[in-house]
Amino acid sequence: MGWFGSLGGAVAAVLLFAVGMAVSIRPLIKKLFRKAVILIETDPFPANIWEMVTLTRHISPQTLIENSMRAQGGVMVKRPLGSPKQMPDFRKLTFLPCQLDRLPTPENQNIETRTVIGPCAKKPLELEIPLLIAGMAFGLGVSEQLKVALAKGSAMAGTATNGGEGPFLPEERKYADKLILQYSRAQWAKDPEILKQADMIEIHVGQGASAGTPSQIPAIHLKGRAMELMGLKPDDTAEIFSRMPGIHRKQDWKKLIDRLRQWTGGVPIGMKMIPGRVEQDLEIAVDAGVDFITLDGAQAATKGTPPILQDDFGLPTVMGLARAVDYLEKKEKKDQISLIVSGGLSTPGDFLKALAMGADAVAIGSAVLFAASHGQGSQKTLPWEPPTQLVLYQGDQKEELNVEKGAKCVACYLQSSVAEMKLATIALGKSRLQDVDRKDLAAPDPVSAAIARVPLI
């Protein structure tokens, strides 16, 4: 009783102290508040703190911070995770559920989720689900631990993971069931013996958050496994060129694709690009003989690129997809050339709407990245570091990522998303995810309806 009595006395003392402080400080707070209000209401604007409110309405806090960074260092700002700019997206679209005019699908009907990328290729890429993991570069972006977690998680979910622009990571190939390798604008990972290990080759022409721009990374920032796999010395610079080396004319793309097809024995060969001059770019890609196109819209994320590339270049994903589908249908190539979309899609609703508009698969980046660190980032990094320190190659806490837990969370995220998509497909009276189409969509405003080529509600 003595111990409990002491504890109770201590708690009572703390409460009394808090009450006393509140009572004594309250008049001071009230006085300071009144004084602040009077200053705001009477000071002329040049000396009025309210000018900051006016300023943040004229120039956003994001821009103010980035301009401060420019003023401080005089060097190019590199913003992570893509543009904060609001752009047209799939969320403005809505599905039209079946009830009487067309009945929902019976509850005992199996909903087919499989998709095929590159149906005309000698060795098409067959996936159990139409969601795959977008390219994330080992070394240039993320850690080996994350790449292994993504590879294992994709295998559990019955889909593919993408190696990204970084060097070939043998462990990723070991644990991935289906591996997409990127043929990038850099010099590494071009050996035919490496490319032969791919289930699909994605020629990296450009991407949403960086378009087709060059990049230089001092090898000292890649020290360790990445520098070794890139074949760099400590005083070298890892360079990604603005143009694909060896490509000087439109006809050269076909030569490259034919060569890759020969090396890899017939796996699908395609191109990744940011939607810009959509029809003109697709014409060249189609003439070159691609098996698929990956459209990485303007909302796409990245480890870090200048805000001008993220905010002011490229078309939103939904707009690029609509134009690409129209072009391929007009050329009667839609059933021969697959479409993968990425950039700003993060919910099952986004994914199914993209399929309805004509995509064959969705590549997920940021959402699956955070899924991989679920339950770890908040516990191991916050509040002193952001969760990204757990997954980046240069992250201070990358060694603390539990790979097995990350892999399971990736698989669960993908499986949960597909489960929602299957239920939505039942509500639309369909039995296959790939049967959901534009007739199942509508838009509440003329702009969204025009962009997506769907009826206006």
TrEMBL record:
Gene3D superfamilies in alphabetical order: Aldolase class I
Signal peptide (residue range): none
All copies of domain Glutamate synthase, residue ranges: 101-372
Stored InterPro entries: Aldolase_TIM, GltB, Glu_synthdom
Family per similarity comment: Belongs to the glutamate synthase family.
Record protein name field: FMN-binding glutamate synthase family protein
Organism: Kroppenstedtia guangzhouensis
